[in-house]
């Protein structure tokens, strides 16, 4: 993330643990926060992740997870 850009908050606990469902929450939060470029960047990087854990770590780079 760029310095000074606030990460949107996303509640991932207690939700569907499917990686695609979680990614959708992150993507929507970024778009809602006006960070369309970050949403596209996130989606591109997500499909290169080799594991569920790697995908979760990526999500926490883009949003504040609660």
Observed structural traits:
66 residues, mainly alpha, single chain, 55% helix, two-stranded parallel sheet, 3 helices
Structure description:
By secondary structure, this protein is mainly alpha-helical. It has one domain. Helices cover 55% and strands 6% of the residues. The chain has a two-stranded parallel ribbon. It starts with 8 loop residues before the first strand and ends with a strand.
Calculate the mean pLDDT score and round it. Answer: 91
The oligomerization state is single chain
Tally the helices: what do you get? 3
Spatial arrangement of strands, main beta sheet: 1-2
Proportion of strand residues = 5-15%
Topology record:
Layout: E1 9-10, H1 19-32, H2 36-46, H3 52-62, E2 64-65
Parallel strand pairs: 1-2
In short:
55% of the residues lie in helices and 6% in strands.
């Amino acid at each position: 993330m760029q310095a000074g850009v606030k990460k949107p908050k996303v509640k991932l606990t207690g939700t569907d643990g499917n990686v695609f469902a979680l990614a959708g929450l992150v993507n929507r939060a970024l778009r809602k926060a006006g960070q369309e470029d970050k949403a596209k960047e996130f989606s591109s990087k997500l499909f290169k992740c080799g594991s569920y854990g790697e995908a979760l770590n990526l999500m926490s780079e883009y949003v504040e997870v609660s």
